Amino acid sequence: MKNKYFYRVTDGALTLFRMLQKKIICFYLRLDNIGDTSRIVLPCYISKDFVLGEYSFINKNSFIASHVECGNYVMFGPNVTVAGNDHNYNIPEMPTIFSGRPKTQKTKIGHDVWIGANSTVKAGVTIGNGAIIAMGSLVLADVPDYAIVGGVPARLIKKRFDSHKEIDKHEKVLSLSPQRFGDYCRNE
Fold first, then answer.
1. Dihedrals φ, ψ of 146, to 5°?
2. Which of 2, 24, 149, 169 has the least C-beta neighbours within 10 A?
C-alpha cells in the first residue's frame, strides 16, 4: 500500500514541473493565449494566435493553423490537424501555388471536446460543447453539442447523453469556473 503523503508530494511536484514545461513550450512556440493549467506535448505546430482554455491537452504531432479557438477541458489526440480550405484554386491562368490564400475562417471548438488521434478538422468548422470526434475522422461540417461523430467524412454516430436532464447537469458543470476533476490526462 502506498503512502498518501507520497501522492500529495508527487502530484505537487508533477504539477510544478508541468507548469514550468508549459511556460517553456509557450515561449518556444510564441503562444500567448494558452490556459495556465493546459498541457502541450511537443513536437507540434501551433499558430501564434491559437486560443486554448483551461485544463486542456494538445498531444504530440498536432498541426493547428491560424484562427482556432478552443474552450476548457479540450483534448486532442496525437496527429490531429485543424487546417485546410485556405488556397485560391479558381483563378484562370494562375497556378494554385501562386494564387494566394483567402481570409482564413475562424474555427471554434467548444468546452469538453475530445478529438481522437489522426483526425482532421477543416478550417471554419464549429464543434459544439461536449462533442467527441472518433479517431481517424475527417470533420468537414459543424458538429452539434454532445454529438459523437466519426468516419470520412464524419457523420453522427450517436448522442453523448440520452436526455436533456443529463445535458443540463453537464452544462451546469461547464458553466462553473474551470477546475480539476479526478485524474488529468495521465499516461500510466
1. 60, 25
2. 2
